[in-house]
Amino acid sequence: MLNNWLKIAFINYKKNWLSTIINLFGLTIGLTGFMLILMHWNDEESYEKWNPKKENIYAFQTHNKAENTYGNNISVPMAERAVKVIPEVKDFVLFNGSGMGYKMTTKTKTVYQGDGMSVSESFFNFFPFKLVSGSYKDALKGDKVIALSTKAAKNLFGKTNVAGETVKFDNGSFVVTAVYELPKENSQIKPEFIISPFEQMKNDKEQWGNFNYGCFFLLKPGTDVEALQQKFYDNIFLYRAKINAQGAGVTPVKYLELYGPTGSLFTPIDEIKLHAKASWFGTGDFKTMMILFTLSVLIVVLSAINFINLKTAQASQRAKEIGVRKAIGSTKSNLVLQFLLETFVICFASYLLSLALTELLLPSFNKFYDKEIVMNDWHIYYYSFAMVLAVTLISGLIPATYLANFKAIETLKGNFAISKHGIWLRNGILTLQLIISSFFIIGGLIVNSQVKHMMDKDLGFSGKQVLLINFSENDAKPWLKYERIKNEMKKIEGVADVSYGEAAPGSNRYSNSNMDYMDKSIFAQHGSMDYNYLQFMDVKLKKGRWLNPNLASDTIANVLVNEAFVRKFGWTDDQAFKNEVRPGFDNKPYHIVGIVKDFNVFNPRIDVDPIIFFHYRETEWKRYNVYNIQLKLKADDIDGTVKRIKKYWQNNVEPGYPFDYYFVDKKFAESFVKYQKQQTLFTILNAMVLMVALLGLFALSSLMIEQKLKDVAIRKTLGASDKTLIVGLTKQFLWITLIAVLISIPISYYLMNEWLKDFAYRIDMPVFPFVLSLILLLILTFAVVSIKAYQATKVNLVKYLKYE
């Protein structure tokens, strides 16, 4: 029986070769997209899975409920108190620095070693890397100890058995306590060397408001995380508020409302890559992942729709076969199983082709996402094959049930076409397919418009020809280093101007604190800078004046703020000049002397933060955070100027350190890459959807028009023109397209409006994509269907009328 079913299946595949190819092609494309996005998702979810303690390690995030914003930092006393007073918390590890690099000297050589971390002493209790040399006990206890990866140990000593050896830094000698091997699996935490911020943490033990640390907590198994978050509010946040509230003259609850944070959030360590609201190691984007996955599933659904439509359209060709089989005793269940088998053979063939195509496209996909995915995870095969079975059932069961329900006597008499259920089914499913296609066209055009809008937006500054050089060497007084080299670097041929700014576009450096005025407080970003920095970056002055180094007040307690700062306080510009603010980083009041136009420091998706600008010498501690020097280059011979700067830097400023620099405009442009990739993927998926939908439409229209060839022959004999016949054959499809687009418009409007809500600077919903979607789909539908309709007008009249 199975052998007969397969023979019948292959006869039908050959007979309907066009629809067979279209089904194969559509499903192969759909399954390939599904597998690539599934592998991408699976890769993002695989981070930190290697860690044997992952079930009980949670990343800590703060939550400001009033503004619904999240932070990733904590202070030392908050973490220490959590272990003391909350039974569920067993231990904590703090991160004070990552991506660090130093010039290190051993007995035989001096090398620059990067990718280091500064962490608290319990690090190896959380991340039990394989120990190669030394011991993890007290490995990070003390200020002058260092642990090395096997790679760093070989780089410094040429071997890995180096526990007890000494490494010299610019600020002293460090003893190697342990050598470890980093995991080969995906992880965001892969330090090449580890040091302890022992002295800094000792100084910060009483600094409740110094949120300079990232944190993981080790919890007891079975901890109720929601209950833990409430305990953090009661025992940590309120406790801190009680300490500070009295001095502020408010209640502890009011203090939290003003200064926050008002809540905490705990995310399992193996979910932070994709699901964390905020993380020391970067925030994931699960929403985008779900959008991509949903779109890939929709393409597979479109392929299934093609299957259903083509199978039901072929009903006339299978009617007599079904009638004969029923007449000789075949049951309905046997017929359903036969048709399901025919569908499965096509689906399985598509699955095998999609595996080959996925392997072929994987290198390009990896390059696109900067990944190293390989097809060695059984989950990929399991879920993709499950999708094949689902498509088989969905796209096979509907037409199989429809065909199996033909009555034997009706089909043998040739009266099966009387029922209109098949026509309604095909039209309904075709409408669904065109609704999805219309959504993709509308969505693609809106995504393109939004990305273009962000890229064309006036950012409020000019980073063109501005070269930023990061300080790599650990100087005791970095501001003096800046002041020493500033005038010397101005003398380099091709350098037009020199300055320094903390809030530099593209740097991703962020430092903020509360700004208080009477009973109101806001958080504002710090913009410590040289006097000329805002003019240097071509930031526009809205009102007031610039800071002037010749005015004594400007060197002590005068500041500039941006428009967002003024808006946040609810002031007018004139009110801002009359009021004084007290920043959380100082006890004295600061007077606003100028308001600058907003400019974007991070990326144009998010709103501009309130920023307060002041000279880096105004505060005792800010001068220690001077971390870069910025140079504006003359337009001619930029490459030659960069070479001269590099030579000077490596010979006179930081010998032995890498020349760590970037052009501000190019670095800032990298913030667009994520959205450009979304745009590219949406365009590719859009093209795939249209291709699958139009091929399905062509095959369906071919089958349906073929069934009307006798009608065409009769009408042509009676004098109908080719134009009249083509319009008559295409009219039904054009009406279906019109209805589909009209249905898709409100759906597309709602979904795309939700997507646009994530952007602080967004376009107004345009009308153009909706109109273009209607026009484009009508044109494409007419073009696709009219090809077969035109061929139908050339029908051989004798062939269809000789028996009439």
UniProtKB/TrEMBL annotation:
Membrane spanning segments where? 21-41, 289-310, 335-360, 380-403, 424-447, 681-705, 733-752, 767-790
Which domain of life does this protein belong to? Bacteria
Respond yes or no to whether keyword Iron is given for this record. no
Q: Which GO terms describe its molecular function?
A: transmembrane transporter activity
Q: Which InterPro entries match?
A: ABC3_permease_C, MacB_PCD, Macrolide_Exporter_MacB
The UniProt record lists the MacB-like periplasmic core domain at 20-231, 434-647
Compartments where found: Cell membrane
Give the record's keywords alphabetically: Cell membrane, Membrane, Transmembrane, Transmembrane helix
Q: Which GO terms describe its cellular component?
A: plasma membrane
Pfam families listed in its UniProt record: FtsX, MacB_PCD
Q: Which residues form the ABC3 transporter permease C-terminal domain?
A: 294-405, 685-796
How does this protein lie in the membrane? Multi-pass membrane protein
Query: Which protein are we looking at?
Result: Putative ABC transport system permease protein
